[in-house]
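dumping this here so i dont lose it
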């Protein structure tokens, strides 16, 4: 009886096993279909990979061209600086040594003064920007004026030394980088070199001009800022007490060609 009962269950067990095989085969077909889909997706990505490689190569070529252009610009700027220096020297050596300025003499020194103004108001503020960014001072304008004041002293000499000291280019770099604490990117490194070069060119042109040239740092602290006598630094107001000199004025043959830039105390 027991044998016959077990024998009766066999068809059912075989059926269950066959159903399991069908299910397994169905799963295998689904997995194969999914694998085919993945392979198709990967095949579709191949052109994208090729395109990405092409774009990377183009980027590298563009970066290389940009580096080449930067080098060419720097070389051109050096040539222009050298030519500008030669032109300044040729002009000023043609001026006879005397106390007065003729119209031609005045134009020579006026051009030097305008180059000095551009150095004060454009290149120096740009040069000390990395240090300002690193320091994050509470009063950015005042700190900017203080740093530029220090740059002017090392480049053009304090008033007690006659106002025409030889530019100290090593000290210029120390101030711009906070003695090496602040790093300069390639553009600001070139700007540092340009500021030093321009200051040296101006110094040579002014000292061989045949006229007594003078950088005027002398403004009494606390004296009212007079727009007829002084150039006001940004955010400063006429009539306010002078806190310090930012950039020296320039005089030739005792004639003022550029006003002294001053920073004033804030109201209240």
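and the seq i came up w/
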């Amino acid at each position: 009886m027991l044998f016959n009962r077990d024998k009766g269950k066999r068809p059912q067990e075989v059926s269950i096993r066959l159903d399991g095989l069908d299910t397994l085969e169905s799963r295998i077909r689904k997995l194969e279909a999914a694998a085919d889909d993945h392979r198709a997706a990967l095949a579709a990505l191949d052109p994208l990979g090729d395109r990405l490689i092409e774009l990377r190569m183009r980027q590298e070529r563009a970066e290389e061209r940009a580096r080449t252009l930067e080098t060419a610009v720097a070389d051109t700027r050096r040539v222009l600086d050298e030519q500008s220096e030669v032109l300044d020297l040729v002009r000023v050596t043609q001026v006879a040594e005397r106390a007065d300025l003729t119209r031609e003499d005045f134009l020579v020194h006026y051009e030097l003064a305008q180059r000095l103004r551009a150095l004060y108001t454009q290149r120096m503020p740009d040069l000390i920007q990395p240090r300002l960014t690193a320091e994050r001072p509470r009063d950015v304008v005042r700190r900017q004026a203080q740093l530029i004041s220090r740059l002017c002293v090392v480049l053009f000499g304090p008033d007690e030394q006659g106002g025409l000291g030889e530019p100290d280019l090593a000290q210029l770099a120390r101030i711009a980088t906070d003695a090496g604490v602040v790093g300069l990117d390639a553009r600001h490194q070139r700007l540092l070199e340009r500021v030093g070069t321009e200051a040296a060119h101006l110094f040579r042109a002014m000292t061989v001009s045949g006229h007594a040239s003078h950088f005027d740092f002398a403004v009494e602290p606390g004296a009212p800022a007079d727009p007829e006598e002084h150039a006001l630094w940004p955010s400063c107001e006429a009539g306010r007490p002078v806190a310090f000199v930012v950039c020296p004025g320039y005089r030739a043959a005792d004639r003022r060609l550029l006003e002294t830039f001053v920073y004033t105390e804030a109201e209240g």
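The longest strand covers residues 242-247.
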